[in-house]
Design a protein that fits this description.
Blueprint lengths: L2 H9 L9 H20 L22 H4 L2 H4 L3 E6 L4 E2 L20 H9 L2 E2 L10 H6 L6 E3 L1 E7 L11 E3 L6 E2 L3
Antiparallel strand pairs: 1-5, 2-4, 3-7, 5-6
């Protein structure tokens, strides 16, 4: 028996009414968001790697005397999952972002603006059957994103705040217009 079924039975066992699972999930999502905001305050909802040396947080004021710059330099790795597909919603206006850009994901508005103002390049493979590039060029109009990419601390594996993005078309890359 699931938590929802047990809760439903405890609250109204004699007269079961219509299914309220969707409402329970929405309230659960709001509760988690409120708890995160309480824990983290008004700032972002994500922390950088707590084990990495950070001036002003976990290094002494005279750290430049004691440590070499290379010792305390942050090191990052970037990786992606090109099979994590996300379908487009039937009613996108019902999708409410509770913490847009405050956690590990980037803000949706500036990210979409960046993608619209970037040069799109369709990569052509010189190989006869390069699956990754061929898959990137396939039209996937029913998908909102075709993967996810993130930046993480190379030493400890913690994700970097505001660095996780949705891939819009497989392994496509965009060139900035700067």
């Amino acid at each position: 028996m699931s938590f929802y079924q047990k809760l439903k039975r405890f609250t109204n066992n004699a007269f079961p009414e219509k299914d309220r699972y969707r409402e329970l999930m929405r309230v659960s999502q709001l509760w988690r968001d409120l708890k995160h905001r309480k824990w983290f305050g008004d700032g972002g909802l994500a922390l950088f790697c707590p084990a990495c040396p950070q001036p002003g947080l976990n290094l002494p004021a005279d750290w430049k005397v004691w440590y070499d710059r290379d010792t305390v330099m942050r090191q990052y790795v970037i990786d992606g999952n090109f099979t994590a597909q996300h379908m487009k919603m039937n009613k996108p206006e019902l999708d409410v972002a509770l913490s847009d850009g405050k956690g590990y994901m980037v803000s949706e508005g500036p990210y979409q603006n960046h993608l619209q103002h970037s040069l799109d390049s369709k990569e052509r493979s010189t190989c006869s059957n390069h699956r990754a590039i061929n898959a990137a060029n396939i039209n996937k109009s029913n998908l909102r994103s075709t993967g996810i990419g993130a930046t993480a601390c190379a030493r400890h594996g913690c994700f970097v705040p505001h660095s996780v993005v949705d891939f819009q078309k497989g392994e496509r890359w965009v060139k900035c217009l700067d």
